[in-house]
Amino acid sequence: MLSGNEIRRLISEGRLEIKPLDDEIIRENGVDLRIGSEVAVLLNNPEPVDPDRLGEVRLEDYYKVFRAEHFTLQPYMKVLVTTMEYIKMPPDVAALVAVRSTFARLGVSIPPTIIDAGFEGEVTIEIHGGAFPVILRRGTRFAHVAFYRVEGEPVPYRGKYQGQRGVTLPR
Q1: pTM of the entire structure?
Q2: Where in the sequence numbering do the catalytic residues fall?
């Protein structure tokens, strides 16, 4: 795991890019990510989705996408949010995203999310509501990213989400 000082060094060398960068988001052993302005609510739809046939699916039947300065995460609701930060990862560093402890203590969770080595873009993160409503605001630090060096010959990310901006629905 990389220390905050090592993260600062990678940024100063131009190997890791985080924009916009605020020094307060660089922590002891990672970086806090802030909620962006786009949200996608996962809708209850009884029709099954075949991940192999996403091109044939009307995604608006499964997601309601909107922009907001804040929104209320209802109990057990699932949403996708985008981060304010656009990240450009080095080819030899990957990261694991977790919810910040303040939100975990409010019952909010996120599934394990990996930022691959070589990934570039805003990060789309799924958030799960807990037992009571919680207000989420644009610019709030809600997730923590721990960075790790990749051992062996790195294989940088070149997938379909490279360069994404805003909430990116499944492709």
Answers
A1: 0.91
A2: 126
